[in-house]
Amino acid sequence: MTNAIVIIILLIVIIMASKGAAKHFMGQGSCCGGGSSTVKEPDKKLSGPVVKTMVFKIDGMHCENCSNRVKRAINRIDGVSAKLNLRKKEAVVEYDREVDDATITRAIETLDYKVISVIKK
User: Fold this and answer.
1) Is the model's pLDDT at 63 over the cut of 90?
2) Which of 1, 35, 41, 118 would be a feasible disulfide site paired with 71, CB 3.0-4.6 Å?
3) Beta bridge partner(s), residue 59
């Protein structure tokens, strides 16, 4: 009888953990310190005309909080503005002046995400 109770409790714990993991990997989780009340990071306005647009493919973003962290890090750099697409796992970065792509890559990778590729749009 005791074994049956322990097994039932373990099954309940496994089911609940699986549901949480599934939500996390679908981008609906509350990782990175967020919760269900995630606020979308506002877009940054560039001070000059757009002179270049690059697409950074990023590995490791699982939820809106991850996406917001990356967007904030890129938007802190003068001369660039980022729009992130969590489903495509990419950042579309517009430049109003010459900024080295390695600077943006460093800003992303210091957050423990991985830049897979950089493509000119």
Assistant:
1) no
2) 41
3) 114
User: Residue 57 and residue 85: Cα distance in Å, rounded?
Assistant: 10
Q: Determine the Cα–Cα distance for residues 102 and 83; give it in Å rounded to an integer.
A: 18
d(CA 20, CA 28): 9
What pLDDT sits at residue 68? 92
**Max Cα distance, the chain (Å):** 73
Q: What is the mean pLDDT of the chain?
A: 87
The tokens describing 105, both together, are: 């890559």
Burial class (CB in 10 A: 0-12, 13-18, 19+), 27: middle
Closest CA to 28 of 72, 69, 62, 77: 62
Strands 52-59 and 90-95, how do they pair?
antiparallel
Query: What is the mean predicted confidence (pLDDT) over 12-21?
Result: 82
Tokens describing residue 39 = 């606020």
